[in-house]
From TrEMBL, chains A, B:
<dbReference type="GO" id="GO:0016301">
    <property type="term" value="F:kinase activity"/>
</dbReference>
<dbReference type="InterPro" id="IPR000595">
    <property type="entry name" value="cNMP-bd_dom"/>
</dbReference>
<feature type="domain" description="HTH crp-type">
    <location>
        <begin position="148"/>
        <end position="222"/>
    </location>
</feature>
<keyword id="KW-0808">Transferase</keyword>
<dbReference type="InterPro" id="IPR012318">
    <property type="entry name" value="HTH_CRP"/>
</dbReference>
<dbReference type="InterPro" id="IPR036390">
    <property type="entry name" value="WH_DNA-bd_sf"/>
</dbReference>
<dbReference type="Pfam" id="PF00027">
    <property type="entry name" value="cNMP_binding"/>
</dbReference>
<dbReference type="GO" id="GO:0006355">
    <property type="term" value="P:regulation of DNA-templated transcription"/>
</dbReference>
<keyword id="KW-0238">DNA-binding</keyword>
<dbReference type="InterPro" id="IPR036388">
    <property type="entry name" value="WH-like_DNA-bd_sf"/>
</dbReference>
<dbReference type="GO" id="GO:0003677">
    <property type="term" value="F:DNA binding"/>
</dbReference>
<keyword id="KW-0804">Transcription</keyword>
<dbReference type="Pfam" id="PF13545">
    <property type="entry name" value="HTH_Crp_2"/>
</dbReference>
<dbReference type="InterPro" id="IPR014710">
    <property type="entry name" value="RmlC-like_jellyroll"/>
</dbReference>
<dbReference type="InterPro" id="IPR018490">
    <property type="entry name" value="cNMP-bd_dom_sf"/>
</dbReference>
<keyword id="KW-0418">Kinase</keyword>
<feature type="domain" description="Cyclic nucleotide-binding">
    <location>
        <begin position="14"/>
        <end position="89"/>
    </location>
</feature>
Length: 243, 243
DNA sequence: CGACGCCACTGATCTGCCTCAGTGCATGAT
DNA sequence: ATCATGCACTGAGGCAGATCAGTGGCGTCG
């Protein structure tokens, strides 16, 4: 696999050993590219009959709004991630999706996907694997919000992002670019913006990491992993591990 | 569909209109029945190469344990629910499953499931639908833990259980039997046992609901729905709505 | 150019929920 | 009959994190 493949092919290729033919087929799903501006919902709750997308560039957030106006962000999507896969199956979206930055994404028709599956069953495995991983991430997110304190929660979140970005070549162990405002982080982690700010300052003062001006710099990876009990195997690193 | 079918067939039949032949095929998955005692893990994190199950009777909990010993329960499983479906795909379980009561469950081999799928595609749709619904429930759970206060969180949780149990004929609008201790509820909702106790007392005093001695009695359904902003359509009620 | 808005940041104050340390009541074991 | 165990329940006190009320920097738009 070379860097010339799309983030999507690159990500799946990291988990299931895929042939060049299969990788090229994955890239082939990236026709029908669309651009969405940041700040306006591209899918909103209750909407029916829309498509799934694969993110080509940019970040998005999926979230729910509660009656009192507060927002819970369920997950962020980065290049290579699916958008709205579940809502295709359920027919009606149960959450909103809003780009965080300008977003490029490719529309994926269920029929195209199924054709690829019957043609190349290993691709089906890989896609199912990715969907399961997404679900596992939501579960981990739930555990964090339910049982971890603010500091550990933020560290865990930033390490998870690092792992995910690394998969598509957008992060190194030293750091990564991150377009999320403190407010977005707060809404994802069930904290207030003010508190996120304070904790980030503490992490900076402790020499653990710096998150500023849209960039995360990791100063002490071992320290971070130790304090957050981040599972290295959970989303991590090295080459094809399945099949 | 008649009450003679298994909870599993009954649940799926409520969402996808299935023929008698299809319902009977679903019941046919219930060979290989096993009994698990409460209190001992049936699946634990990191375990590989185990099966999926369908719950026939009894309740189970899936949870994670954190390094500090605290527990986050991700979901409870009731009759008709899948157990460990995702961990079959991922090959290694990412969480533990422990029966809450004595549990009867049927082992389901991936091959049997796939055979049923190729034979009856509508069944595949129904099963995928159920899996998506489970994921949507985890998302809703995340939203609750992140953004709802203790009272609303508990009410929402108990209403969701009511809807799920109703689907398999184990609840009415008046109430249902619930074998969960206050401690289990607390670990699911990210609260302390003590606080769950207090909130349940308040709900009782407000004449909204009584949860005591393993039984939930609903006194004021409209009041509960209003205060928790429970989405009636989200998991609810009336007959086949898909296909 | 100044005005407006967004974002990062800070201090003061408030509060929801936790922790600790207990009591009372079951049920089952001896 | 008594003891042990588990769950429900209560009050006192503490703390993590929320809310409120600001300041200052920076980009953008009339």
């Amino acid at each position: 696999m070379t860097a010339s493949h799309s983030p999507f092919a690159r990500k799946l290729g990291a988990f299931v050993a895929l042939s060049d033919r299969e990788l090229i087929a994955l890239d082939g799903l990236h026709t029908r590219r669309k651009v969405f501006p940041s700040g306006r919902d591209m899918i909103h709750e209750g909407q029916t009959n829309h498509s799934a997308y694969i993110v080509a560039s940019g970040w998005a957030s999926s979230y729910k709004i509660l009656s009192d106006g507060s927002r819970q962000i369920v997950d962020f999507q980065i290049p290579g991630d699916f958008l709205g896969l579940r809502s295709v199956l359920c027919r009606t979206a149960d959450h909103n999706i809003e780009p965080v930055t300008t977003l490029e994404a490719s529309e994926v028709l269920a029929s195209d996907l199924l054709d690829t599956f019957t043609d190349m069953p290993r691709v089906a495995t890989a896609v199912l694997w990715a969907a399961s991983r997404d679900e596992a991430m939501v579960v981990e997110h739930l555990v964090g919000v339910g049982r971890r304190d603010a500091k550990v929660r933020i560290v865990h979140f930033l390490l998870e992002l690092k792992s995910r970005l690394k998969l598509v070549g957008m992060a190194t162990s030293a750091g990564y670019d991150c377009p999320l405002s403190q407010n977005l982080v707060a809404d994802a982690l069930g904290l207030s913006t003010v508190h996120v700010n304070r904790v980030l300052r503490e992490l900076r003062e402790d020499g653990l990491l710096t998150f500023r001006h849209g960039h995360v710099e990791i100063h002490d990876l071992d320290g971070l992993i130790a304090m957050s009990n981040f599972d290295r195997t959970y989303l991590d690193e090295e080459g094809p591990m399945l099949i």
